[in-house]
Q: What sequence folds into this?
C-alpha cells in the first residue's frame, strides 16, 4: 500500500514538472491508476482483518477525491 501511495505523489510531481500537456497527462493518468491500486490493497487488508471497515471507507473516500482532482489536472493545459 505504501508503494502505491508513494507512486501517486511521485507521478503527480513528475507530471507537474513536464513541459507538454501530453507528458503531464500521462503521469496524472498513472497517478490515478495508483490511487485505485491503493483502494484495491486496502480492500484486501479489510477483508483479512488488518484494517477496519471504517478505515477502508475513509481510504476509499479520499481516493475518490484524489481521482477527481487528477481528472481535473488532466484537463488543465500546461504552458510550454
A:
Amino acid at each position: 500500500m505504501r508503494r502505491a501511495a508513494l507512486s501517486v505523489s511521485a507521478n503527480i510531481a513528475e507530471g507537474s514538472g513536464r513541459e507538454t500537456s501530453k507528458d503531464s497527462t500521462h503521469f496524472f493518468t498513472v497517478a490515478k491508476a495508483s490511487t485505485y491500486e491503493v483502494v484495491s490493497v486496502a480492500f484486501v487488508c479489510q477483508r483479512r482483518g488488518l484494517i477496519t471497515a471504517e478505515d477502508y471507507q475513509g481510504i476509499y473516500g479520499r481516493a475518490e477525491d484524489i481521482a477527481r482532482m487528477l481528472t481535473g489536472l488532466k484537463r488543465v493545459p500546461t504552458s510550454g
Remarks:
- Residues 2-75 form a domain with the de novo design (two linked rop proteins) fold (CATH 1.20.1440.60).
